[in-house]
Amino acid sequence: MAEFQPAGPAEIQDGEVDAVEVDGRRIAVANVEGTFYAFDDTCTHQGCSLGQGELDGTAVECPCHGSQFDVTTGSVLRGPAQDPVETFEAKVENGNLEIAL
Amino acid sequence: MTRGTFVVLGGGLAGATAVATLRNEGFDGRLVLIGAEHLPPYERPPLSKGYLRGEQAAERIAVRPEKWFGDQEIETRFGETASALDLGAGSVALSDADPIRFDALLLATGSRARRPAIPGADLSGVFDLRTLPDADEIRAAARQGARAALVGMGFIGAELAASLRSLGVEVTTIEHGKVPLRRAVGPEVGRVIEGLHRDHGVTMHLGRSVEGFDGAGRLEAVLLDENERVEADFAVVGIGAVPNAEIGADLGLGVDRGILVDAQLRTIDPRIYVAGDIASHDHPVFGRIRVEHFDNALRSAEAAARNMLGAGEPYSDPHWFWSDQYDMNLQLAGITTGYDDFVVRGSLEERSFAGFYLRDGVLIAAVSVNRAHDVRRSMRPIGRRVRPERSQLEDPEFDLRTLVPKRADRG
Question: What pLDDT is recorded for position B2?
């Protein structure tokens, strides 16, 4: 069982996505109506930062080539990406974000 | 229909996306994918970038792993073209086998590189860039210190210039227009691209024409107007693409550069659909257009495949593309044709900006250089033909998403 690690204050607004660094790894975090979802920041298509992308509901869209992933499961919603992104458990404790790698 | 036989003619991104979509949407009939190239479908954008620079291997640019086609029970005929199509019988004939009778057919034959009708164009060392073997040839010629002449400064020329510079190649470009990429992005952004390439040591001849290629058996120089010679070890011609739409005329489908289709990407023959570069489609926002970008190949193939299964959905994609050159990421959504006003957010000089193309006050397209957010957020407003205030467009703090009310957005 992965342990939760601190990922800074939970500042990401509802409807937004951003990237944080946890244990030397870039993790994207999306806020969907107050619930935080964490997933690998690196797009499985060509490696762009999903945290720099756009969030629409539970779909994050890669800023480079338009691939879409479901932030709740990591699955591909639209190509060109073929492979899902890894997802991680996330929670907020006392206003701070914690992510289990 | 989930049974029967569907044939997809064209082994590029559009063809591969169509067969994937058909299977994902539950089509479990016979599915045949025919491609003229011997390789399974691959993505072409890396051919001028990561693949050319040796950063991405061939298997990394495959649209699907080769094994996937077998797993999905898709019959592939790579390295083949249709020798005859019989609409009366509803069949397509290949060179080596009995005709395949189809219930629905998708045409996605893509484009080929335009070759200039000038002397010496067939010399060894004069390349164009369309296929993976083309990229391999250019890569082999792109030794450190080699001299490259690039004819045409569209996206192929501009991306190649950037990749070749990073490989240590001396690059000279010759472009007919006064500004690179003018037709695609307009002169304002074209000049930004010009500055970018000059800063990276590219020699640019703008407003010049190429009269021929000179060399004894192999290219030695490109000949310009006014008797100027550009000495070169190799040249790449990137002066546009010609749609492989002849098949449409052969079938009597109606062709105007591309094959004419309705908003659902269907031809006048209800069994036959078209996707990608060759689809001249009736767009709900932009009118009749034909688009040669990657994203259009992908999205139009998805839409055509769903419509082959009876979805009946119009293809209303905002038409979006990107280009990576050096450390610059350029994106553009919409169709810039006929714009009469251009509003900048950010700084052209610092190459960090978004630009908005307006026609009669309506937002018709948006471009970004290292500000991709603004283009993504402009897509829905473009689709809704909104009339934003100049001050809203200029203000980096203004959220473009709010140009379309949430409720209207869902409706």
Answer: 64
Copy the structure tokens of residue B251. Answer: 């079938």
**Pairing assessment for the beta strands B229-231 and B221-224 based on DSSP bridges:** antiparallel
In sign, the C-alpha dihedral spanning B324, B329, B330, B334 is positive
A75 touches chain B (CB under 8 A): no
How far apart are alpha carbons B208 and B320 in whole angstroms? 30
What is the rounded CA–CA span in Å between residue A14 and residue A36?
9
Interface confidence, given as ipTM, is 0.76
Task: Specify the pairing of strand A68-70 against strand A59-61.
Answer: antiparallel
Chain B, residues 15-74, CB within 8 A of chain A, namely 17, 43, 50, 63-64
**Separation CA B227–CA B123 (nearest Å):** 19
Say yes or no for a CB contact (<8 Å) between A66 and B50: no
Residue of B nearest to A15 (CA): B401
Examine domains B5-112+242-308 and B327-410 and report if their fold is the same.
no
Give the pair of three-digit tokens for residue B4. Answer: 């029967």
Out of B43, B63, B322, the one facing A64 most closely (by C-beta) is: B322
CATH T-level topology, domain B5-112+242-308: FAD/NAD(P)-binding domain (3.50.50)
Distance from CA of residue B100 to its chain's centroid? 30
Nearest-Cα distance to chain B for A97, in Å, is: 25
Q: A40 CA to chain B: closest CA distance, Å? A: 19
pLDDT of residue B409: 47
Tell me the pLDDT tens digit for each residue of A51-87: 999 999 999 999 888 899 999 999 999 878 888 999 9
Is the pLDDT at B410 greater than 70? The verdict is: no
B156: its two tokens = 């192929």
Q: Rounded to 5 degrees, what are φ and ψ at A32?
A: -110, 100
pLDDT at residue B103, rounded to an integer: 96
Which CATH superfamily includes the segment(s) A4-100? Answer: Rieske [2Fe-2S] iron-sulphur domain (2.102.10.10)
Tell me which CATH code domain B327-410 carries. Answer: 3.30.390.30
Q: Residues A8-21: pLDDT tens digits? A: 888 889 999 999 99
Q: Which of B61, B298, B324 to mutate: most A Cβ within 10 Å? A: B298
pLDDT digits (tens, 9 = 90+) for B23-69: 999 999 999 999 999 999 999 999 999 999 999 899 889 999 999 99
Structure confidence by residue, pLDDT tens digits, B127-160: 999 999 999 999 999 999 999 999 999 999 999 9
Q: Phi and psi of B381, rounded to 5°?
A: -55, -35
